[in-house]
Amino acid sequence: RVEERFRAHTALRVKLETGRTHQIRVHMAYLKHPLIGDPTYGGRLRTPPDSDAAFADVLRRFPRQALHAMALGLVHPESGEECRWESPIPDDIQALMHALRIDREAHQDSPK
User: Fold this and answer.
1) What is the pLDDT of residues 23-41, one digit of tens each?
2) What is the pLDDT of residues 40-91, one digit of tens each?
3) Which among 19, 38, 52, 99 is most buried, taking Cβ atoms within 10 Å?
4) Which residues is 75 bridged to in the sheet?
5) pLDDT score, position 18
């Protein structure tokens, strides 16, 4: 589900169907929408042509895949109890989202 749209990026909420390794990364790359900071499936850096150098630098320097599990759950193998853990969005992704919002707002009146 789309959480927020930016000029050249989109924040999504996805739910895994399986526990396969790299599932989100592979699917998003296949759809030509790779994750920021993904050296394996990410391809070249995507910035709108009129982006300033500081914004491009934020994207280029993001130190990891822009991917976060907000919640993880499983059924305990012995007790059968449903277990769930939640984690807030980390500071580095919040800072990335802030930069994406600033870029969007700076160009909201620009022709497409």
Assistant:
1) 899 999 999 899 999 999 9
2) 998 888 888 899 999 999 999 999 999 999 999 999 999 999 999 999 999 9
3) 38
4) 82
5) 75
Q: What is the token pair recorded at 101?
A: 């919002």
Reading the block at residue 110, the tokens are 């620009």
Query: How far apart (Å, rounded) are the C-alpha atoms in residues 20 and 45?
Result: 26
Beta bridge partners of 84: 73
CB-based burial of residue 103 (10 Å sphere; 0-12 exposed, 13-18 middle, 19+ buried)?
A: buried
Long-range contacts, stretch 38-47, CB < 8 angstroms, 24+ apart: 38/65, 38/66, 38/67, 46/8, 46/9, 47/8
CA atoms within a 13 Å half-sphere pointing along the CA-CB vector of 101: 8
What dihedral angle (degrees, nearest 10) is formed by the CA atoms of 40, 68, 13, 91?
Answer: -120
What does the domain layout of the chain look like in residue ranges? Answer: 2-106
